[in-house]
Amino acid sequence: MITISYYPLLVLLAPLLAGLFIGLFGDLIGKMVYRIAVLAVVIAFGISLQILFEVIAEGPQIVDISPLAAPWSGTFQFGLYIDR
Predict the structure, then answer these.
(1) How much is the pTM?
(2) What is the rounded (10 degree) CA torsion for 43, 45, 50, 52?
(3) Burial (0-12, 13-18, 19+ Cβ within 10 Å), 80
(4) What is the per-residue DSSP string for 16-48?
(5) Contact 22/36 with Cβ under 8 angstroms?
(6) Is 82 helix (H, G, I), strand (E, B) or coil?
(7) Could you please report the per-residue DSSP string of 45-62?
(8) Residue 58's CB: how many other CB atoms inside 10 A?
């Protein structure tokens, strides 16, 4: 099954973006840093559970990250294959 939504990418991007935010603004935020980090991990975990339930119900999913690149164009293509 081909998935058109890109929300599985948030599993990878939520902690990465939180880490960048904390790295850049950590001194200004102070003690709130841990809340941002925990929130990013909780978001990634929640989305992971949702993806797991979808894969169990519907089978493996493919997330094509480069949908505009034609297979014959010779460009690098990237995607995710999500299964149990």
Answers:
(1) 0.75
(2) 160
(3) middle
(4) HHHHHHHHHHHHHHGGGHHHHHHHHHHHHHHHH
(5) yes
(6) strand
(7) HHHHHHHHHHHHHH--EE
(8) 10
Tell me: the pLDDT tens digits for 2-35?
444 777 888 889 999 999 999 999 888 888 899 9
- Dump pLDDT digits (tens) for 38-75: 999 999 999 999 988 888 888 888 777 775 666 666 67
Q: What does DSSP assign to residue 69?
A: S
Order of strands, edge to edge, in the sheet holding 79-82? 2-3, 61-64, 79-82
Instruction: Report d(CA 32, CA 34) in Å as an integer.
Output: 6
